Amino acid sequence: MTEPTLPRIRPEIAALPPYRQGKQAGPDAFKLSSNENPFEPLPSVLEALQTTTPINRYPDASAAALRARLGEKYGVEPDAVHVAAGSVSILHQLVLGTASVGDEVVYAWRSFEAYPSLPLVAGATGVQVPLTSGARHDLDAMADAVTDRTRVVIVCTPNNPTGPVVSSAEFAAFVARVPQDVLIILDEAYAEFVTAPDAVDGLGERVFERHPNVVVLRTFSKAYGLAGLRVGYAIGHPRVLDAARTTGIPLSVTSAAERAAIASLDAEAELRERISVIVERRTRLIGGLRAQGWQVPDSQANFVWLPAGERTDEVAAAFDAADLIVRPFSGDGIRISVGEEESIDRVLAVAKSLL
Ligand code: PMP
């Protein structure tokens, strides 16, 4: 059969690999590849899902109830809050709203896998700044990489997939060096798991108020355990967020997602408890790996980084054979989510056998 003539696709889009998702786990496997929350949904969240607005009706386009609730939590006007179907949507919306052909988007590398596609989709150019040897953001080098073509800089803290945070002092010095007309996205998808007292906390420190070019991103996918419902939010200057509202696909946050997010915010105490369990497991996992001799960076998120380098594929195969679905980055390392209690023992046993 002859190939049909197809519509022309932009070559930079055709060359992009699709978003890579962790493998699905079988019944005896632990899925530790997507930094998900291992806990069952809270009863109050399930209840909220059952009382969702009839599904023959569209959701509220601006998710006003959730924005009001988040506004209350953080002491900002609802217009200073934007919600979308996952914080990855907001990353796209903000980059589309600010960067275009000839513009540059600066981000650290290695970092969140979705970053490279953001400038490409917008027609802009990505500029990757290597992490330090300690797997941390090199904010001095990132500020040096800003040119008069830079429209956006993304700072991921804790950094996915390596785990370290940017400190408040480092971030303050960085913001002071970046021109005020350049958008700084502070991606804090894992903020709720942070325990380091000197870590930047964009919302707690209200960085976005002193610096209207800073937008803070958070998500309900990780600590709140709503990854399957898709809801994330941004807090920042209302006129900056308007750019995201305009470029976003309308009505993408479902009524179910909005209700579940509000119910989760209402269950703060139970969520805090779950977070502290995950943080304890993280401490045990990092301590165990280091005791075996692995050079694990200090993760402040719900995952740890195993810098396996050239051995990454071999190490990943060993985890796979033990029914541990982890996330390998060939030639570099392996990211392992902090999951179920028993998964920690299994990870430690496999890691030990590899040394
Ligand atoms: N930012 C970072 C750093 C992430 O790791 C992720 C999820 N892997 C996201 C944003 C997006 O999360 P979501 O779209 O589920 O809110």
UniProtKB/TrEMBL annotation:
Taxonomy, top ranks, is: Bacteria, Bacillati, Actinomycetota, Actinomycetes, Micrococcales
> Does Transport count among this protein's keywords?
no
Which cofactors does this protein require?
pyridoxal 5'-phosphate
- Please give the organism: Microbacterium commune
- Family membership, please give it: Belongs to the class-II pyridoxal-phosphate-dependent aminotransferase family.
- Provide the function of this protein: Aminotransferase that catalyzes the conversion of aromatic amino acids and 2-oxoglutarate into corresponding aromatic oxo acids and L-glutamate.
Recite the UniProt keywords alphabetically: Aminotransferase, Pyridoxal phosphate, Transferase
- GO MF terms, alphabetically ordered: histidinol-phosphate transaminase activity
Residues annotated as carrying N6-(pyridoxal phosphate)lysine in the record are 222
Question: What is the recorded name of this protein?
Answer: Aromatic amino acid aminotransferase
The entry describes its oligomerization and partners as: Homodimer.
Q: Which gene encodes it?
A: pat
